[in-house]
From TrEMBL, chains A, B:
Stored PANTHER family: EXOSTOSIN-LIKE 2, SYNTHASE CPS1, PUTATIVE (AFU_ORTHOLOGUE AFUA_7G02500)-RELATED
Name used for this protein in its record: Exostosin-like 2
Enzyme's top EC category: transferase
Coiled-coil region list: none
Its biological purpose: Glycosyltransferase required for the biosynthesis of heparan-sulfate and responsible for the alternating addition of beta-1-4-linked glucuronic acid (GlcA) and alpha-1-4-linked N-acetylglucosamine (GlcNAc) units to nascent heparan sulfate chains.
GO biological process, one term: UDP-N-acetylgalactosamine metabolic process
Membrane-spanning parts: 18-43
Length: 331, 331
């Protein structure tokens, strides 16, 4: 039997040494078990949410997510209502609130006290109440895609998720939910309108030549383009406190040489302006609003030395949603 | 008075010479007037159409027009009905009828006796009744765009004009009216179906991964691609007398690395097969038709060593047609 040198020890001494050895082994095993237990993930108690959970949207790739930019003036109640909705939209990276309530405190305390929130929300305090504040280049903007929303517009998550996927296929265009058009008249003067305005007359149906940016996705690069626009464009927007969206469509159409936008037909879009307590009802109710927009068209044509807007009649919807077979035919 | 040499002549002689001169002038004027009258365009008499009017579609650019390729078997009555409709579609360059009625005379005499026709129609006599006959490279095909139609399908001119304009924006894809999809199962075996088949499960709504070529526009270059396909693909189509459209979608998807097709929702599409006198009801009524198509999917995946089909949920409609405001919202 090979047990040298242990075997040479007397039986009693060997017994005690064996006991010591076993104790050491057991202790080591307990320590190892303890270490392993410490490495196991914590079992979350449903009743006690982890307040320190790291917001997972931070890890979303800048290519697969978008930033919501929402400018707000005198409708903080609507803003907070909308933030509760929009903060949970899939693929949202961050929200940037452009705070046009000059001199008024941002609701950051309220916001934080009602946390945690799925995504970070940044309040950008403005020193002047300007329409084009929302078209600045914000350092907090990290994604290629921007979702720009007016502070009184509610669009369903389904619509936004679908429209974002469409934007990803047409990243150089403004992909959104509100189409408008220009028409030319025999005098060469342009006029602005929606579907009630006569069609450009290309055949059947209607055409659109702009997608309004108050409910649309577009590439963040266009914000840089916009900042480099001629001073005359900025002055026009400041003069009218209007038309920043028309200017953006001119910019994009000129840049890509085709229709500036792609219209996605929304399933569920709502205007909440009647629900505000502030009584403030939005710029588009001003008597001169539409006339201003026709005015802007013609001014921009002067500045651009031509009409770059192009017509499109493509209307995009989501296949099989919301109706199980919204494409069914008698065939 | 300066009138030498005329003034030197006696009065009577001068009178006669003046008369001669005037006559000559009048004669010349009459001749000129006559010549001008001959150059005036003929006033067309509405009751007597000019039988020798040159078909104006011949001058249509190969880029702005398309060729209709329609394969036909045992439904000549439907064929002729459809030809009357399709011959007048805007932007149509020519019609190629793939005559699968082997041994039967083409209706060329009937066709000519009922002329003139807006576009040329060519009957291509086939020696074997094969499904993939329609995917040959016909020398008469001059346009970049092909419209392929089954011989029992009637689609409105509005739909076709719109879909053609959509194809021009997506020329590398199959732009058509009939979407289908594949789904994968836990076993790795694929199955084929329409909207009743479970969705691929990407979120809301449905997806499609194929556009059937029996009612679609695609680039004529894909016919050349198809001819160069592996013999196994041709053999599969010949074996099943089916699946040429699935094979085309595999080809296109592999080639462009994205969804093979774009679905255009038709406003007015009709299947006329019940109206035929022949009693022939089409391949898709065979009991094994759908199972064959699942079979083809899996065979093609073997041949392609992978599944190249990609899903899409983009559904395209024409803005403002047929309803004046088919995009109107509560907003």
């Amino acid at each position: 039997m090979r047990c040298y040198p242990i075997c040479k020890l007397p039986g009693r001494v060997m017994g005690i040494r064996l006991l010591h050895f076993s104790s050491v082994v057991i202790l080591v095993l307990l320590l190892v078990a303890g270490a392993l237990t410490a490495l196991l993930p914590n079992i979350k108690d449903d009743k006690m949410p982890n307040l320190r959970r790291e917001p997972k949207s931070q890890s979303q790739s800048a290519l697969d997510s978008f930033t919501l930019i929402m400018q707000t003036y005198n409708r903080t109640d609507l803003l907070l209502k909308l933030l509760n909705h929009y903060q949970a939209i899939p693929h949202l990276h961050k929200v940037i609130v452009v705070w046009n309530n000059v001199g008024e405190k941002i609701p950051e305390e309220t916001w934080n006290s009602l946390g945690p929130h799925p995504v970070p929300v940044v309040f950008k305090v403005q020193t002047v109440n300007r329409m084009r504040n929302r078209l600045q280049i914000f350092p907090e903007l990290e994604t290629k895609a921007v979702l720009m929303m007016d502070d009184d517009t509610l669009i369903s998550a389904h619509d936004l998720a679908f429209a974002f996927s469409v934007w990803q296929q047409f990243p150089d265009q403004i992909v959104g939910f509100v189409p408008r058009k220009h028409i030319s008249t025999p005098s060469g003067i342009y006029s602005y309108g929606s579907f009630e305005l006569q069609t450009p007359g290309f055949g059947n149906g209607d055409q659109y030549s702009m997608i309004l940016i108050g409910a649309a996705f577009f590439h963040s690069g266009y914000l840089e383009h916009f900042q480099k626009e001629l001073e005359a464009v900025h002055a026009l927007i400041d003069e009218t406190q209007n038309c920043d969206d028309i200017a953006m469509n001119f910019l994009v159409a000129k840049h890509i040489g085709k229709s500036s936008g792609v219209f996605v037909k929304p399933v569920d879009i709502r205007n909440l302006e009647k629900e505000t307590n502030s009584g403030y009802s939005g710029m588009w109710h001003r008597a001169e609003h539409l006339l201003q927009r026709s005015y802007c068209l013609n001014k921009l044509v002067n500045i651009y030395d031509g009409m770059p807007l192009k017509y499109s009649n493509i209307m995009v919807s989501q296949f099989g949603f919301p109706n199980y077979a919204n494409h069914k035919n008698k065939m």
